[in-house]
Amino acid sequence: MNLALRLSYFGDSFFGSQMQPGLRTVEGEFIAACRRLNLFEDWRDSGFAMAGRTDRGVHARRQVCSFRTDEPDRAIQALNRVLPEDIWCTAWAGAPDEFHPRYSATSRTYRYYFFPVPGDPARMNEAAGEFVGRHDFSAFARAGSRSPERDVLSARVFESGPFAVFEVTGKSFLWNMVRGMATVLERVGRGEASAGYIARLLADPPGRRLPAAPPGGLVLWDICYEIPFAPLPIERENRRQRYHTLMAEISALLASGDGQHG
């Protein structure tokens, strides 16, 4: 079976998603777990692939990978038992042979979380609308793609608790493109860039690209396909949720630095 899986992970625990010799990566940990379960002998022969790469520090809510295996039931039932605490599977799909997690995607959505809220989120939301459409995004991304043009389907900024959230959906994105967009929106929110600044960057990209916002605020939020996914058993996911809630509480206590001793 060509098995597709949705993955979630905390990016600050990894040196990016892509396999790198001697470094802890999402692919490395996931492939090691598959080998422990004998889901395949060689990951290359299995056709293992991910929907896209995330840099060091970037998180994922719905990354997608796929591979061929003769033991799909074992994968579905056991992978979350052998994966480390900072990466887990949330859903699966039996995919057609021609399915590829990168090339079969119909859209991708990213969210960038700003904390504290940088000035005026309403101004940021208005400016985000200038990203929508097909544009040359070379001012916002690293070089490397043969074409700097991309189609942005939607873009908005909204407040969620203590955060301002930039959400953007497109068919595909350039390397560091979303983080570059976040940098400009933060400038707009703080009043450091005027209305129409984004439109001018898109119409006449400068020779030097904008700096990328820090990776820790970026989440690969969703990737859509034309195949249905089914949720995995939730017992393990609930245990992970409790674990990470506890870790968040401990981190907040340590960060408070109140000098109290038990």
Kindly give the count of domains.
2
CATH superfamily of the largest domain: Pseudouridine synthase I, catalytic domain, N-terminal subdomain
- Largest sheet: number of strands, sense, barrel closure: 10 strands, mixed
CATH top level class name of the largest domain: Alpha Beta
Helix content range = 25-40%
Per DSSP, what share of the residues sits in E-state strands of 2 or more residues? 25-35%
- Count of discrete alpha- or pi-helical segments spanning 4 or more residues: 6
Overall shape: globular
Structural class: alpha+beta
Q: Span from first to last CA?
A: 54 Å
At the fold tier of CATH, the topology name of the largest domain is Alpha-Beta Plaits
Q: Low-confidence parts lasting 5 or more residues at pLDDT below 50?
A: none
Summed over residues and divided by their number, the pLDDT gives a mean of 90
Write down how many β-strands occur, each being a DSSP E stretch of 2 or more residues. 10
Supply Rg: 20 Å
| Elements, N to C (H/E) | EHEEHEEHEEEHHEEH
At CATH level 2, the architecture of the largest domain is 2-Layer Sandwich
